Each structure stands twice: as structure tokens, then as C-alpha cells.
Amino acid sequence: MNDAAGFAIGAEEVRAAARTIAGQVLRTPCAPSQVLSKITGTEVWLKFENFQFTAAFKERGAVNKLVHLSQAERAAGVAAVSAGNHAQAVAHHATRLGIKSAIVMPRNTPFTKVKNTRELGGEVILHGDSLDECFEFAARELIEVRGMTLVHPYDDPLVMAGAGTIALEMLADAPQIDTLVIPIGGGGLFAGNAVAAHDLRPDIRIVGVESAGYCSAYAAIRGDPALVRGGPTIAEGIAVKGVGKLTLPIIRAHAHELLRVEESHIERAVALLANVEKVVAEGAGAAGLAALLADPAKFAGRHVGLIVCGGNIDPRLLASVLLRQLVNESRLVSLSIEIEDSPGFLARVAGCVGDAGGNIVQVHHERLAAGRHAKSATLEMLLEAQDQAHTEQIIAALQAADFVVRRVHAGHGEFE
């Protein structure tokens, strides 16, 4: 305990963690993004923690905790509870250090995450349907019975201090940063980095970001648990219903503001990082950028540091997000075109689209709908365009050729 501050950790613990983990985890790059800066009206700096071996910042805290174990604790092994990044970080570094690890994961954990954790050397135990049930099992069967030491994903001073080393590196590489926007799940990432950053730069502005459905820190500070409504989110890494007991006082003291971001902004942030920076970020890793996209005026003219804290997103989910963004940007559009069901009409439509610079991705003839004339048909066509203006140009070209065109309203199965 840092007695002077009254918190679980202070800046000295973070500096000690930096010395401890040096050479054992990657010192990730921190680089500016000209395109994201232009889009958001800020100077954006990105800290690429998704470049770590297990593709997430969790390695920093895991290493700091594991290195401080006594010989007896090392011999007994460690336990962890996680459905994702923390599991892989603990399994990887425990194995590397010759320590046995047992990871308790919910039964509904995606198979890929289970497989990855096992391949990294962890003993995976699938139990229960929630992390709460997993924690209960770990406390009873692994800690009490086997004598293992729990490596908590966020509510542990050594884990928090390890995470805080990110801010030390960021401010060394980009001292002009005057604002840090940090994702909050259980709060370990925020707590460690807030303590470190405010020690180096007392004037730096620190903003916490949560998924709108899992705003556990905001709800705790407001004293209204009902604000945490839950539900599906692509930011699983910060989908935590309760903030840590050790992290909350630090969040309360160091956060200038807590923001809640909706799924649409998180999806756009994931897509932008892929398309602009050519990096894969999971939803939690893109939450900081999502906050800038949601309210750019709040950060206008500032020098903002964002932590891309993880890149472990399911490939199918990433593909879905990228395609959805193409639809939102009118770069992928569905049209319904009335034609005569006679030879040559498909070629005429294709010619109009091609001459207008569009790319036909998919075509379907609909001939059997009720009420349709036997000699008519509808072309349901998926097109690729440059942007909204280009889409309108393609539609105008089709209409000029006397085709009746309706645009499918994305997500509703209706037409404009």
C-alpha cells in the first residue's frame, strides 16, 4: 500500500514494475496517426499494446505478479480466472518462468481462446456460465485445496503497477501528450496508468472510457448499479459488471471524466484502425478512439494518447464489423432494380453500373414474388462504390436508363 496517497499503488510501484518487466515484455511502439488526427481534429498518438506476444497489455501485469512470487508460491503454481487476454498472458509467462498455471474459464468461452490458452501451457478448467462462478471455483478448488496463488486480472497492486508502465513509455516517447484516454473494465489499466501519468505530469488530463452497457466505474461513482445494463458488446475485454475494489478509489481520484461509448462508435473505431493503421484491434482496444469519434469537440486541438490495449478479436466478428462499416459509409450498397425478364436486360444494368464506376459484388433474380407480372423480374444487386456521392451517381445512371431503382435500407430489409 502506498501510504502517502492512501491507494493500493503509487508511482514508485509503477517505476519498480518497469524495471522488473524490462526485457520480458515488448516495449511497444507509440506513434502518431496523421489520418486519425485529421478525422478527429486532435493530434492522435497510438500505443500499440496489441503488438505484445499474446496481443494484449495483460502481459505487463502478469509478469510483474509472477516475478514477485516466493519460491513456495512458485512451487504451488498460480490460478487465474479469465475468458480472454488475461488467461493467455498468465499461461504464457507462467510457462516461460517454469510455473504451473491453472486457468478457470466459463463453459461458453470460444474454443479458439481455450485452445490458445492450452497451447501456451495453461491447464484450462471450464466451469460455470459466468466469471463469478469461475472465481468461486478457483477460490475453493485451486487456492484453498491446491494452495495456488491467484493472479487477479485487475484488482491486484502488482498487476495494476505492471499495466501502469504503459504511461511511462508513452510520455517518454511523446512528451507532448496532454490527454490520455484509457479504457476501463475492472479498472487495472486505468489505475496504473493514471497514477504513473499524474506523477510525471500533474496537469495531464486523464479520461476513462467504458462501454455504454458496462459502465461499472461510472455507476459505482454515481452510486447507481442499475446504470450497468449489460447486453451484447464487441468490447468484451471491458464488459465487466463490477469495477475493482482497489481500482475504484484511484479512478475516483484521477479521472477528469468518464465517458460511455455506444457500439456504433466502437465498431467504427475497430474499422478505422484496420483500414487506416492496418492493425487489428479488439473492441476494448478501440474504445479510446471510439470516445474521440463520439465527441470530437471534447478533444479538439489536444494531443491525445490512446492505448490500443488488445488485438484479440474473432476473425468472423472482425469481418462483420468491416462489412458493416462499408455499408454505413455507402461503399457497399444493396439495390432493387425492376427489369423486364427478357434476354439482355441484365447486361444493360451491368453496363450502366460499370460505366458509372461501380463494382457488382452479387446479383439475384427475383421472379416468384406474389403480385409480380410473369414477364417481369427484380434484380437484387449488391454493389461496391467509393462513397455516398458515388452511390447516388450510380443510381442516377440507372434511372437515366429508365430503370426503377430502390435502395435497400441497411439492417431493416426495407427500401428507400
Main attributes of the structure:
Rossmann fold, 416 residues, six-stranded mixed sheet, Alpha-Beta Plaits, elongated, alpha/beta, five-stranded antiparallel sheet
Overview of the molecule:
The chain is an alpha/beta fold and 416 residues long. Helix 9 links the parallel strand 7 and strand 8. Strands 1-2-10-7-8-9 form a six-stranded mixed beta sheet. It has a five-stranded antiparallel beta sheet with strand order 12-13-11-14-15. A four-stranded parallel beta sheet has the order 5-4-3-6, with helices on both faces. It has three domains: 216 residues, Rossmann fold (3-Layer(aba) Sandwich); 70 residues, Rossmann fold; 87 residues, ACT domain (Alpha-Beta Plaits). 42% of the residues lie in helices and 20% in strands. The chain is elongated. The chain is built from 16 helices and 15 strands.
